[in-house]
Amino acid sequence: LVGKSDLNKKSVVRLNERLSIGDRDILIIGGPCTVESQAQMDTIAQQLTGSIQALRGGVYKPRTSPYAFQGMGTNGIEILARTSRASGLPVVTEVMAIQQIETLANQVDMLQVGSRNMQNFDLLKALGEVDKPVLLKRGLAATIEEFIMAAEYIVSHGNPNVVLCERGIRSFDNYTRNVLDLGAVSALKHLTHLPVIVDPSHAAGRRELIGDLSRAAIACGADGLIIECHPEPDQSVSDAQQALSLPAMAQLVESLRPIATAV
Ligand code: PEP
Ligand code: MN
C-alpha cells in the first residue's frame, strides 16, 4: 500500500483545510521538545508565525529515565489546543499509548509516533483506525524496510495519511546524538509515495549542527522539517542542547527558501 508502483505517484497529507505535507511547498514544524507552559507555547506561536506552519510539543514524553519529567499530560493538551486556536497553527504531539489516542485526536491536528514506538504494532494498528494524520518517526535502529513496514501497519488498517520522519539512527560515534541518514530520505521517496520529513534536532543533538542538516535535508528532497526551538533554549526541561532560540529558528527557515525553490 505504501509502496510506489507509479514513479510519479505522491501522496499529499492534509493537516487542516489550508495546509498539507507533500505538495509543492515545504512544511516547517517548530516547537519545544516538551510543552512546559501556556506562555511558552504562545510566545513561540507569536514569534514564529510567518516562519513555521505548524507547532510541535510533547505532552507525553518517552524519557530514558523514569525519574525524568514525563510530560504535562492532559494539561499540556489543553495548552496545545489553546495556542492552536489563538494562532491558527496546527499542532503535532506524540501519542505513546492506545488509551491516549481518543483525547489527543479530538484536540490536535497530527499524532506523532516516536522512534521508541515505531514497532509498537498494536499502537500502529489502532492509529490505522483513526481519522487523523500520523507522523511516524524512524526507530532508533530501524532498517528502511522495517520503517516502511511500520507505515504499512497504519495504512493497511485504514489510515492512508502517514508522513515518514527520518530522525537519525544509532551508530558508534556519540559526538552527534544519532547519524542523520539522508540516503534514507532519498530511498524512501523512491520506494514509497508517502511524504518524508526530517528531524535534524534529534539527529544532531547539538544546536550548532541543525542549520546545515536542515539545508541538506531540503536539498535531498525532504517535504518538510520538524525542529525543536524554545524561547529560552538553555532552560528547556528536555533536550536543551539541541533547542534553537526563536530568532535562530526564524533565520534558519529563511535560509531554506533558495534551496527549496531550487529542488
Ligand atoms: C520527539 O520528537 O519529541 C522525540 C522524542 O523524538 P524521537 O522519538 O525521534 O526520539
Ligand atoms: Mn526532544
TrEMBL record:
Residue ranges of domain DAHP synthetase I/KDSA in the record: 14-252
Gene transcribed to yield this protein: aroF
Enzyme class, spelled out: transferase
NCBIfam families tied to this protein: DAHP_synth_Bsub, PRK08673.1, PRK12595.1
Classification lineage: Bacteria, Bacillati, Cyanobacteriota, Cyanophyceae, Leptolyngbyales
Keywords: Transferase
EC number: 2.5.1.54
Protein name: 3-deoxy-7-phosphoheptulonate synthase
GO MF, one example: 3-deoxy-7-phosphoheptulonate synthase activity
Keyword DNA damage attached: no
Any matching Pfam family: DAHP_synth_1
Species whose genome carries this gene: Romeriopsis navalis LEGE 11480
GO biological process: aromatic amino acid family biosynthetic process
